[in-house]
Amino acid sequence: MKFTCAKNKLQEAISIAQKAVTGKSPMPILQGIHISAKSAQLTLIGSDIDLSIETKIAADIQEEGTIVVDSKLFGEIIRKLPNSSVQISTIDNNSIEIICEKSKFTLIHMDADEFPNLPNINENMIFSIRQKVLKNMIKGTIFAIAQDETRPILTGILFEVNDEKLNLVALDGYRLALRSNSIDNDNTINAVIPGKTLSELAKILSEDEESVNITFTPNHILFNLGQTKIISRLLEGEFIRYNSIIPEEYNLKVTAKRGELLNCIERASLMAKDGNTNLIKFDIKDDNLIITSNSQLGKVREELNIILQGDELQIAFNSKYLIDVLKIIDEEEIILEFSSSVSPCVIKNIDNTKYTYLVLPVRLLNA
Amino acid sequence: MKFTCAKNKLQEAISIAQKAVTGKSPMPILQGIHISAKSAQLTLIGSDIDLSIETKIAADIQEEGTIVVDSKLFGEIIRKLPNSSVQISTIDNNSIEIICEKSKFTLIHMDADEFPNLPNINENMIFSIRQKVLKNMIKGTIFAIAQDETRPILTGILFEVNDEKLNLVALDGYRLALRSNSIDNDNTINAVIPGKTLSELAKILSEDEESVNITFTPNHILFNLGQTKIISRLLEGEFIRYNSIIPEEYNLKVTAKRGELLNCIERASLMAKDGNTNLIKFDIKDDNLIITSNSQLGKVREELNIILQGDELQIAFNSKYLIDVLKIIDEEEIILEFSSSVSPCVIKNIDNTKYTYLVLPVRLLNA
Question: Per the database record, which ranges form the DNA polymerase III beta sliding clamp central domain (chains A, B) (predicted)?
């Protein structure tokens, strides 16, 4: 194998493929990046079996070939090279030689045959969506996935396609995040994608107008970004029927400024850290929201102007769950819907349709 | 006690005084900030006994008084308040009340009498130096202090005043860093200041033209920045007679570009991480510096144009010590002086007088 390519292009490709390399795999070959040079193109693959990322860049191929090199060391070497043309070739003793200006590295490589094959997916695009839209939907839901593995299905995000809409849903038993976007497809699909896949995908998705094509198979999902393909297994099992959890009715509706509410809750939570309860109390009455909290060290009272439609209410929350939601919303004006002190709070924006967040209250002994 | 002051001024003062609070003290009172309100001024003090920082801000004092409050929690509360006027007053139950717009905190305070007194220092300025100059001198030496406590004196920096010069010297047995600056004083003083004191001081020193006045006592040093005073005990014992370590003669002199040399060494060190030796070899010959390193994973060869005066030489180093020096130097053209493969390398800038760095080589078995 022998090829020449631009240092910065190669560095970028490594950083993409590397996102699938965990570095903690029991199989040493999976700490490597698979590089194949063929017909004017370099293909880099990183994989941890569950997630594989393949990316292509143009290169001047003088001799075709395939190798696997240690992902971390190879990535560091290329990153530190001068911004110039890099020549890489296989030499004796299972090694490659990397030459860039006056730098010359010799690096052991592994046997490419040991690298697992990518799942064989017959690309059959179900729908296409703008990369920045999908990126936003992932960021707007991924914080609500379960952190523990007791119910593995909840460590992923549900991709639900129906009624020409794509819904992303995450929930962990204490809160739920739902983001929706219209798509040009009338299939019905339910698939749960591992959180790890989507957090890496979100880093790769661009902020501009390009699209990503998505293909589902019974066990896998394929995101095709053009030069880059991300293939992930799906999580097995049924996702929770989340629709039945979201209340359709409410007894009181609060309209509030997101930024102000976030600041009040963050301040109140400073006093709620004692014993790790994060417990804050809302007292909603007369276009006023009073937030209080206390601990052995002291107490706090915050007051916020709101618009209240409906009855007054006292309700308590784990402040962390509210802060997570309020930080992820872009809009400045939001709506909170409540039914009782033991029913979930639903958080929406004024225009309503793009997202729905739900946070369960903390039941107080004296409530 | 009762006073009103601007939130951002108070926040700034807390962040200064807080730098002396370690949070790990066995005395709970030392996790607090001492606040006294007197004659239109608020004085905040943080201390860990060895290091004390006192800072003053203007405030509207309605009732004089003194308290101690938990440094971390109080700092977080003030930081999160809206950028407005803050009113703080003592209330019942050993508490203070903090009011800012619609936020109201109640916070337990401690007994100010338990707070240790600052060392009683009769201010008697020995010399004055521009803050940004001292800041630079500290940054340029502190990386070379000893990290382990086997020789406590080496965990500090020597402040040496003589011949109308201030020298800062740090050394750890493997390398030495010396920065000098002329001052308007002909006393002779030797004092060793703890590294922790100087690293916090460097964060407080400003980047502009203001000066800092320095007073020495047999056991303490006082840095007076105007509104802020930093008082630190000195380290006890004799510092190493560093002058005898710095070679005055050399057999070969290399002139090199600092940035290029740093890049070459950083790349070479990628291959030197195996077994944590960081071992890289220099081969100096014919206006060329060849840097090599190897490990089980591969090897590297870097080549750099230099100007060589003197004989050729092969010498090996721990790359970390060279990288530390090359990163801290601003100048682009530097001089390296060598005597033999087992003698220290001296690194200077072209103009020479402001700094001297010294790095010991690694003795090779085949050298």
Answer: 129-239
- DSSP 8-class letter at A110: B
Residue A252 and residue A201 share a domain: no
Contact A110, A93 (CB under 8 A): no
B223 and B268 fall within a common domain: no
* Tens digit of each residue's pLDDT (9 = 90 or more) over B341-356: 999 999 998 876 789 9
Given CB atoms, is B79 within the 8 Å cutoff of chain A?
no
pLDDT in tens, B50-107: 999 999 999 999 999 999 999 999 999 999 999 999 999 999 999 999 999 999 999 9
For all residues of chain A together, what is the average pLDDT? 94
Structure tokens at B105: 């905190």
Structural domain count, chain B: 3
Compute the average pLDDT of residues A131-152.
96
pLDDT tens, position by position, B2-36: 999 999 999 999 999 999 998 777 889 999 999 99
Closest CA to B313 of B342, B349, B275: B342
Q: Which of A288, A281, A353 is nearest to A322 (CA)?
A: A281
Give me the amino acid identity at B350. Answer: I
Asked if A91 has any chain B CB less than 8 Å from its own CB, the reply is no
- How far are the Cα atoms of B38, B48, B121 from residue B117, in angstroms, in the given order? 17, 11, 11
Residue B120 is assigned to a structural domain of this protein: no
Residues B59 and B162 in one domain: no
B102/A303 CB distance under 8 A: yes
- CA dist., res. A310 & res. A251, Å (int): 6
- Looking at A222, A243, A264, the residue that finishes a domain is A243
Q: What is the predicted pLDDT for the residue at B202?
A: 98
Which range of residues forms the domain containing residue A234? 127-243
Say whether both A9 and A51 belong to one domain. yes
B91 and B136 in a single domain? The answer is no
The reply to whether B232 and B264 lie within a common domain is no
- How far is A127 from B352, CA to CA, in rounded Å? 67
Backbone torsion region of residue A93, taken as left when φ is above 0, otherwise alpha when ψ lies between -120 and 50, otherwise beta: left
- By three-state DSSP, how is residue B17 classified? helix
Taking an 8 Å cut-off on Cβ atoms, the answer to whether A297 and B102 are in contact is no
Q: Helix (H, G, I), strand (E, B), or coil: what is residue B336?
A: strand
Q: Is B296 on the interface with A (CB under 8 A)?
A: yes
What is the rounded distance in angstroms from the CA atom of residue B226 to the CA atom of residue B211?
A: 9
- The amino acid sitting at A4 is T
B303 close contact with A: CB closer than 8 A? yes
What per-residue confidence (pLDDT) applies to A306? 97
Same domain, A238 and A253: no
| Residue B121 located in a structural domain | no
Taking only residues 254 to 273 of chain B, the set having a beta carbon closer than 8 angstroms to any beta carbon of chain A reads 263-264, 266-267, 270-271
Domain boundary among B198, B214, B244: B244
Query: Is A43 a domain residue?
Result: yes
* B122 domain-assigned: no
Q: Do residues B133 and B193 share a domain?
A: yes
In whole angstroms, give the CA distance from residue B88 to residue A270.
Answer: 17
**In this structure, how many other beta carbons lie within 10 angstroms of the beta carbon of residue A190?**
15
HSE, side-chain direction, 13 A CA sphere, residue B205? 24
CATH number at residue B293: 3.10.150.10
